[in-house]
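Quick one: structure tokens for this chain, please?
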Amino acid sequence: MKRIYEDAAYRREVGSYWETTVAPPRFERLSGDTIADVAVIGAGYVGMNAALELAETHGLSVALVDACQPGWGASGRNGGFACMGGSKLDWTTIRKRFGDEATRRFFAFQSDSIETVRENLSRYVIDAEVHSNGEVQLAHRERDMETLRHEAGFMESFFGVKPRLIEKRKLADEGLSSGEFHGASEFAAGFALNPLKYVSGLARAVKANAGISGFGESAVRRIRSEGGKWRLECTTGSIVARKVLIATNGYSSEDVPDWLAGRLLPVLTQIIVTRPLTRQELDEQGWTSFQMCYDTRHLLHYFRLMPDINGEGPRMLFGMRGGLSAKTAPQMRMHMALRRDFERFFPAWRHVETPHYWSGLACLSSSLSPYAGPVPGMDNVYAALAWHGNGVALGSHTGRRIAAMVAGDQGAPSLPAPMRQIPRRFPFPPFRRIGLAGAYRWLALVDR
């Protein structure tokens, strides 16, 4: 397997706060040969939603395989924001590139994605510690508040939805007190959840479905054509299927299949979680809102106060981009940078310990939009990848929708145009991380 980061980025141990709240689910190893209608590679949000849809709605047999275990990748270690998003392009750019109708369809698709997560929680009886009614974007500079005003006007005139603007003087009244911010925009769509509890619930549903065979610790080493079908050669056996869906996102291998080489850019991201906070500590900082939050930086921070679930007190989750290397020393430096930013945002909590720290891989494409569709040159092979840090909702919904494509449902609606662009290879693929370093330096200057 060819990957662009050091082995440490793919180690089995995650060490997340989420793992203290629920035992990660496990699938049995693949042994010998397995035959199915569809093979799905990657047991995260996309893969499990697709597998469930293929079995439940289309009556197909599915072999779902993961190099580690369900939810081990980004699906089980992210910040838990089930919200709008999935592209790094702003709505104005999307509109210029794809037109009005396609832009509105993409917006509606993202909105439907949130409801798909909500429906999954209800259908499979998953208690995922849901909270927050929408999300808040906080202006980190005065001029960014003007940008938020402009964007709110565009959202109202073009999409018919109206974000609520919060002036700087009102932030404290909203429980959003921090000297870092100059106002905010609140959009009432989406909610927060415990991502590992959500993905564990999906895994239980997969295991309970007789039409799905789930396999863990069974990395796919090669995909090859065999008699009109596809054989997936894995570390512990093989799968033969008529159709294949690749749903491995930032944990993809560059050579499984070779078509993936150079088309994705996995990026490190990192999170800390505090110990439980007391009522006095919350009041001293003036941060009592449980809304999902992020700032207006290109290299953004994302954070949320998580409600008390066991009588110990609420905790703050705080995340931002990672570094360029998964080795120990660079990771330690980025951990320190994350902690410094946390203390700058919340100075009254400088004494508060953050015992939980972990990192993972988000995934970008060269088009800065997700891709869901056929793999060129490989009949009956499909891919759904590149969620740009917003795969909780969009990945879940796309898994359901691409299942119809895989099943050959001619009556299913097409995916939004921004998601149908076949991702091109990045320029000079072996040097993607060097290019990323330059992008980080440039964006840090822009964010000042």
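The mean pLDDT is 97.
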